[in-house]
Amino acid sequence: GFHRLARESASATYLQVLTPPSHIMEDQVKCTPPDSLLKYEEPLYVGLSAADAAQVKREGANSSQLDDMLNSMIPPRQWVEESGAWMQHVSKDPATRHDVITLQEQLDRRHLERQARETGLCPVREDLYTQAFDELIRQVTMDGPERGLLLLRVRDEIRMTVDAYKTLYDSSVTFGVRKQMAAEMGVSDLEATIVEKENRKKELSNKVLELRNTVEVIEKREGERRQLEDKKRKEELDFLKHQGQHLDLFLKQVGGNK
Predict the structure, then answer these.
(1) Which tens digits make up the pLDDT trace of 111-144?
(2) In the prediction, which pLDDT does 69 show?
(3) Nearest-CA neighbor of 147 among 156, 159, 158, 138?
(4) Tens digit of pLDDT for each residue in 172-222?
(5) Is residue 147 classed as helix, strand or coil in its secondary structure?
(6) How far apart are CA 40 and CA 190, in angstroms?
């Protein structure tokens, strides 16, 4: 009975909003609400622009406490078409077991239709589960407002956690880009240093080869000089030995004649 009175009160409040101005043709006020897993009431015509929605909210001040709770938990959605601006409040109908099964089937079908990824980051999958969770909050709130408020706290906490991770991810991406740019700026200096070091290495290698050739030439010359000196000393020794032998022979002959 409470839910029925709430729906009748809301319908009476927005009766004049559902009726478009007389100068607008019937085919001009037709609208196509955006697809959503969240169950909404019939669209409300709010005027030619979205600014007229504020007047509609003021006219709906006599809504019930449950309506105010649901509207604060899940605000009405608004959009603008060629026919004008429209608004939709979440449905005040209590959920049944069939509604839960239908929600699950719609969630699976939307996954396939919108080609949501099963794993990893996927904005489509995130949007679908957000809609499904809001619909569960609506269903639970209609059955027990206290449980609905608790689920609302859980939803807000999850969103804050996700936002914190997004902020952390954006910060890490920015940090990584800065580091990459700094590394790229240092690469040119490192490449220039590498080229300089390689040229220095070539110069030193050439110098080493030059010094080795010089050492070989010096060693060869010294070897030849030693051979000449050794040969010369040997000839001198042979000459001195030969003279010594002749001198001994001469001394013997002189001594024999005496």
Answers:
(1) 999 998 888 888 899 999 999 999 999 999 988 8
(2) 83
(3) 138
(4) 999 999 888 887 877 888 888 999 999 999 999 999 999 999 999 999 999
(5) helix
(6) 63
Backbone φ/ψ region at 115: left (φ over 0), alpha (ψ -120 to 50), beta: left
* Tens digits of residue pLDDT in 15-26: 344 445 444 444
- H/E stretch holding 150 reads helix 145-257
User: By C-alpha distance, which of 126, 127, 147 is closest to 136?
Assistant: 147
According to the model, what pLDDT value does residue 11 have? Answer: 43
Q: What angle do CA 118, 121, 161 make, to 5 degrees?
A: 120
Residue 46, classed as helix, strand or coil, is: strand
User: 80 exposed, middle or buried (CB, 10 Å; 0-12, 13-18, 19+)?
Assistant: middle
Q: What is d(CA 83, CA 44) in angstroms, rounded to the nearest whole number?
A: 12
Cα–Cα nearest to 11, from 76, 75, 86, 92 = 92
Residues in the chain: 258
Contact 23, 65 (CB under 8 A): no
**What are the residues whose beta carbons fall under 8 Å from the beta carbon of 100, sequence distance 6 or more?**
139
pTM of the shown model: 0.55
Give the count of beta carbons closer than 10 Å to the beta carbon of residue 150. Answer: 13
Beta carbons within 8 Å of 168's beta carbon, 6+ residues apart: none
Structure confidence at residue 257 as a pLDDT band (50, 70, 90): low
